[in-house]
Prior knowledge:
alpha+beta, Immunoglobulin-like, 22% strand
Amino acid sequence: MEYLKIVLRxxxxxxxxxxxxxxxxxxxCMDEAGLPYIPARRLKGCLKQSARDMEKMEYPEASEKxxxxxxxxxxxxxxxxxxxxxxxxxxxxxxFLTKKIPADDRNIEKCEGAIPDIVKRMAHPANVGRxxxxxxxxxxxxxxxxxxxxxxxxxxxxxxxxxxxKNSKEMEFYAPLYLNTEDSTxxxxxxxxxxxxxxxxxxxxxxxxxxxxxxxxxDSTADDSSKxxxxxxxxxxxxFEKTLKEMNSEDKVKISYHISLDAPVTLPGCGELNTSIPxxxxxxxxxxxxxxTGNADDKFFDSLFQNGDxxxxxxxxxxxxxxxxxxxxxxxxxxxxxxxxxxxxxQKDTDWKGLKPKTMDSAFASFxxxxxxxxxxxxxxxxxxxxxxxxxxxGTFQDKLSSPDSSESEEKMLYMQESIDAGMIYGGxxxxxxxxxxxxxxxxxxxxxxxxxxxSTQYASCSLKEIVNVxxxxxxxxxxxxxxxxxxxxxxxxxxxxxxxxxxxxxxxRSVLADKLGLKDKxxxxxxxxxxxxxxxxxxxxxxxxxxxxxxxxxGSVYCFEASGESVPSIxxxxxxxxxxxxxxxxxxxxxxxxxxxxxxxxIDYIEPKEDCRYTREIYTKLLVSAGLEAMRRYALDYSVQDxxxxxxxxxxxxxxxxxxxxxxxxxxxxKESDIxxxxxxxxxxxxxxxxRGIYSHTGKNTLSLKKILGEDDALWxxxxxxxxxxxxxxxxxxxxxxxxxxxxxxxxxx
Length: 751
């Protein structure tokens, strides 16, 4: 696998556009675990600027090569695909810090039992961030005099790798790289752009951001499975063949699959962020991949993507192992009851109405079976999203906004973008005939999955995780009792077209659903519908045009009908855009709705990174060092000095000059005793020796005890004793407790 390797030659400020209260005015990009990273869009922007500089230096065909590699402002995508630059082993370290340590799971040899609380505190993102960064201050000068109110603080990523205990190895970042071309001249041009890029980030003309960038190939990161060639036609997994054996070639089957979000995904809707990946995005991505090797005129392309023979669903989060749907509107959160989740249609009383119920518009729900296995319930979760700030150095056509006061346009420099967090697992389904299974599986396995905006840089990258199931897609019917309530819940958006236009009128929608169920359009007494609407759009990349906006009934809406006593289908499909998964509804009787009374918070499944003990041990050693230094500080702050007549100034000078603990004791031994005023009074030499030995040594010994200056914390000492490298660093920091104690005495005397 290829990477851009970035080696820091100085401190770096890859700003995130935010500040931290009054402490930091410009902060750097760090993930949820506190690990620094360099956004891919910054890297690509710097490389593109270097390419433009090479154009000015008359590099051969630089303008055309720049356009082909980086794309242009008119929507033409370049062949360079780049992801965020992270440290080696970042996934393993992130998993260890956020999940393993809270669960007391080190998976390190000779370490057992609970992790000490002080070590867990060091694993907090703020403390981890301080391992990799520091804060620098700067102020403005005029005629050699500082300007008032000009002091600013900037956090920077440290030049040297904190895992290197000798503090001599430069920090390195690696950005996964994919160049979608066979043209060797473009690859050579990209390598030259890397060589020409010497500075990145903020304040690059003030000593920050000096880097060395190179294209680096690391075959060791690829596992054996990734080296295998994907077959021309994907075979049906053996575990599903028995189920499909007796089916005819025209019978319908449902394929369930999971994908992993390898990078954040930005899916702008009409005035909102989509947290599910629309089926039209899935179809567009797969169709584009198909056309790179296939032809739009063949019979398979039409069946797969155009005429509705194959129906693709949207991709939604996988919650506790199950593919979810947008949360039905009858599931509400009670604001005045500690956020308790309930199924409002399964409640026998109405007390919950006074507890400020709120619908969960951005949540998803999947069915789960409680422990008694007699009923079903809903597991509800919301995808994690975050906001990223971007800075356009050169405004493009899309970045220009018309000013209401002027005919001229202004360039928009700073803008923000919301995205779904990377690492989550999403799932979807495909309904097709048996004869199309192999074709669908082949497309899914071979496609380069990228969804949403900024597909070439920092965002959109996904990969197929597994084919979960291939099963017959039969139409089941459920029996009903005459007069009971029957609920129709939308699994996906519903687009109904009448008289040439799309409608959202509640009565007309009810009429369409009632006809599909074979029921009368009547609401049972005491029941009501829960409906919501929104507008969908899209982008036609071939023609570079927006698709028409269409009003639809939003997924999660609930309609209630009165049963006639006849059987009704468990799932119905109606309306337009069927090939895009629209118009899928499931049906629940009153009895089933009452059984689904249990609603709980679920967990979205995440990718399990491969464990690498090298990185786990490195970060844990660093945490132990940080915890040890914190324990030393606390020990010093709590230490009570018995004799106040301490030669503070002399001891501070000796401490700064001492090479080690024994050398410090030798220096104390040179203090003269001429200041003794009586036989009963200790001199400065004796007072100093008693103080130092009381801090560092056990009674009757002159050797430094690391356990003692750690505050006699048995749990922490047990951990540190298993890591010789951590002990070495802490022993070299033996001066810390005495420095703090002497500072305390100095300021105590001043007061």
